[in-house]
Amino acid sequence: MAAGYAELLRTRHAARLLAGTLIGRLPNATAPIAIVLFTRAEGGGYSLAGALAAVYGVANAVGQPLLGRAVDMYGQPRVQLPAAVVSALGMVWLALAGTGSVAVAFAAVVVAGLFTPPLEGGLRALWPSVLGGREERVHAAYAMDAVAQEVMFTVGPLLVTLFVSLWDPAVALVLLNAIGVLGALSVVVSEPSRAWRSAPREAHWLGALRSRGLLALLGAFFFVGTALGSITVAGVAYADGHGGQAVYGRLMAALGLGALVGGVLYGARRWTGAPERRLRLLVALLAVCYLPLTLVPGAVAMTALTALAGVFLAPAIACAFIVVDRHAPAGTVTEAFSWLVTFFGVGAAIGTAAAGPAVELGGTAAGFGVASVAGGAALLVLMATQRVLASVGPGRAPAGAVADGVGQVPGQAGAARADGVSEPFAGN
Description:
Blueprint: H1 2-10, H2 14-41, H3 46-74, H4 77-97, H5 102-114, H6 119-130, H7 135-166, H8 169-188, H9 191-195, H10 212-240, H11 245-266, H12 275-290, H13 299-310, H14 313-327, H15 333-362, H16 364-384, H17 386-390
Helix pairs in contact: 2-3, 2-6, 2-7, 2-8, 3-4, 3-5, 3-15, 4-5, 4-8, 6-15, 7-8, 7-11, 7-14, 10-11, 10-14, 10-15, 10-16, 11-13, 11-14, 12-13, 12-14, 12-16, 15-16
């Protein structure tokens, strides 16, 4: 599969767009960790740290679909770069103001979260045009995208702890966001980003949310986000009693490394059958792997269990990308993927907010217990909405119609021609 990924990256613009998107998303990916460490360094408690991270996540969740819809309507450069600059300024405001004024701290994280650019959804909108619209290559790109994210989630916590150890949490906030602006700039000045246009869309105030299948998927990934968000705070509490910030960095890196390994293994084969059924299995395995975290063993064993908890995360995310493609209405490609980010982010915010009080009331095990309960809830949502997810919608081919179980051309929600200008498919 590594050879297949290398072939994809040799395609013109692919490596640049992937790298730029990952770098541009670094502030968002590390924000919960950076905010928690910054708040603790300022003398704030777990509840305040969790609340600030949660508010950032909620603001991010509100902004992503709004900015995603703006991208679909006005193009990527006119939205992505200005949003990245404003978001970075919000984090700089937090770093300079500190947490002495709680109101100012909350205002700063609201600005930073609300204007986080929808680079993730934007990249997935670009893959069909960059890869010539070839179905198997676009699906491989989704898997590669999920794996690359886990590299970022592995490196991100280490970067945060490195910057904190070299300087302090305030400097870490500023540096990470400056790097993020450079990543966004690299994407929006590229030829595919400048040329891309969304497919014509039906005027509807709900936009992508008029799809029942998409709503079902979003509900499940809300709880997956809750699980991941709670681990962020519970991990800090665990590290405080087992070696401090270095242990916390290792735990978060292990979580990302486990997901990286899982993503590589998942992408090493072609899958048959409906992706919706495969997603249920992956989420079930993800939920099972969260259970052992509540045992809170020694640091070495805990690191191994955290890595195991990450193994099925990247495969579940990659599979979810395909399900989004199958259920999103035409002309809503960036918005649909942004809604996935939004629901995941809201869930993560709820998880961080819930884990703080859980740790303070019931100890570290209770914090990890939030992740276990949330994983089970995600599975229940997918089980309860099987029929909705099985219905792909008018004009879309039935599940299992092609080798990997996806019965439509990737990017059908806003498929693009080779010249980067999107056009609708018949039947949408």
